[in-house]
Amino acid sequence: MTNKISPLNFRKNAAQAVKDKSLRHAMRTATDMFIAKRGEGVAAVPIEVWRDQASAIRLEVLDNLPDYVDRFSFHATKAGAVVHHACDAETARETIFHILKDRGARKIVKSKSMITEEIHLNEYLEDQDFQVFETDLGEYIVQIAGEKPSHILAPAIHKDRRQVGALFAEKLHVPYSDDPAVLTKIARNILRQEFLTADAGISGANFAVADTGTIAIFTNEGNGRMVTTLPPLHIAVFSIEKIIPTLNDLSLFTKLLPRSATGQMLSSYVSIITGSRKPGESTGTKELHVVLLDNGRSEILKGEYREILKCIRCSACFNVCPVYRAIGGHAYGVTYPGPMGVVLTSLLEGIDKVYPLLDATTLCGACVEVCPVRVPLVKLLTMLREERVSKGLTPLTERAAMAMYGVATKRPSVFSLAQMTSKALWPVLNRIAGKGRLDRLPVPTSQRFNGGNS
């Protein structure tokens, strides 16, 4: 499965994913590990205090976002970066294209960036005859597989080592191995040459500091640091809500983000980049361009769903979501799966284009319990479900069934009659509804709630 699948077919996509035993095993193994590691990572720290502080900082930024964008732009420019403002995906793509074209850049290395997935940058650049190489191992795996990431943190979470070994043997023409160390070495040897010969590097940013014009990138493989220092040109692309006020605030998120994502006390590599290389410095890119993307954020900021913009993309909500854990990311058919992805995608794409994704939640609240910045995901998902109903986007049969249920629950006599007859009528209703609908529900019992027999 790939993200070419339509989100409008989510129920069908999910049903197919559930039948994939290999996928379910891979998802269960990986997410169980992330959950356990997070638990260990937050056990001995004041995590609830940190969550409160982080939420307050994110809200402060959202309350004054235009001012923070201006402050970041001013200080980044002062530090030697060239700042571009992009109102939408098309503008961002064209801006990046002209930066690369004007400098004669043809080979590009990239570090993991969900915002470039959002604007479909790779496909656009490849159509313009650029060579684009993903350098995060998971991103590299899905790129050569012709797929899209299925997780923010672990793009190839849906594949096990045997599948990766077979993929490398087929695509890279190397001997088969399912040893992770061997597979990593194969990818490293190939990508090292691309780093050394690349004309430009493209990255995202985990955070951008308004008071200094600094961008911060967290990675565990070191590829992000190579992307941003070896090529002569570095283009950083990120959305405007990634901005935080000060470097002191960054210290909090440096502790909070990795613990939420992987349980680590600190990411293996934290790159703090302020402007381009200065005279006398031996490291850093010679030319830094920053593309600040809006792409619907300003509209979201005006509405009742604004708190989704607090999200720092740690993916903790993915790992605990019972739906995501069962079906993986590709079944959603969009860039951002999982609880935060359902909310954000509904707002960015329009609920009418992705409304079946609102079924991808049990509203259990596990996502709220682990969110490091206290995004009220259950509240937002419930509001979106209410909006879906008010717009008549639910199937007619479902609306009719819920209307009948509403009538029955308001009238004890009708409800009692329904209890008595449901057991006998269930096989008939099952055939009418069609395979895969009512058969997912418990069979009605003959024992009534009040203890009497029907």
CATH architecture of the largest domain: 3-Layer(aba) Sandwich
Just give the CATH class of the largest domain. Alpha Beta
What is the CA–CA distance across the termini?
46 Å
Count of beta strands: 10
Average pLDDT rating? 92
Q: Bin the helical content.
A: 40-55%
**Count of domain modules:** 3
Question: Spans with pLDDT under 50 lasting ≥5 residues?
Answer: none
Q: Return Rg in Å.
A: 24 Å
Residues in β-strands, percent? 5-15%
Task: Please tell me about this protein's structure.
The protein has a six-stranded parallel beta sheet, sandwiched between helices. Strands 8-5-6-9 form a four-stranded mixed beta sheet, with helices on both faces. The longest helix has 22 residues, at 21-42. It has helices spanning 10-18, 21-42, 47-63, 65-78, 89-102, 114-118, 121-127, 137-145, 161-172, 180-197, 223-229, 247-261, 297-302, 316-320, 322-327, 338-349, 351-354, 366-370, 377-390, 396-410, 412-433; strands at 82-86, 107-110, 131-134, 200-203, 207-209, 214-219, 233-239, 243-244, 269-274, 287-293. The chain has 454 residues and is of the alpha/beta class. The protein has 21 helices and ten strands. It folds into three domains: 4-30 and 314-393, no CATH class; 45-295, NagB/RpiA/CoA transferase-like (Rossmann fold), CATH 3.40.50.10420; 396-440, no CATH class. β5 (207-209) and β6 form a beta hairpin.
Could you outline the blueprint of secondary structure elements for this entry?
Blueprint: H1 10-18, H2 21-42, H3 47-63, H4 65-78, E1 82-86, H5 89-102, E2 107-110, H6 114-118, H7 121-127, E3 131-134, H8 137-145, H9 161-172, H10 180-197, E4 200-203, E5 207-209, E6 214-219, H11 223-229, E7 233-239, E8 243-244, H12 247-261, E9 269-274, E10 287-293, H13 297-302, H14 316-320, H15 322-327, H16 338-349, H17 351-354, H18 366-370, H19 377-390, H20 396-410, H21 412-433
Parallel strand pairs: 1-10, 2-3, 2-4, 4-7, 5-8, 7-10
Antiparallel strand pairs: 5-6, 6-9
Helix pairs in contact: 3-12, 16-19, 20-21
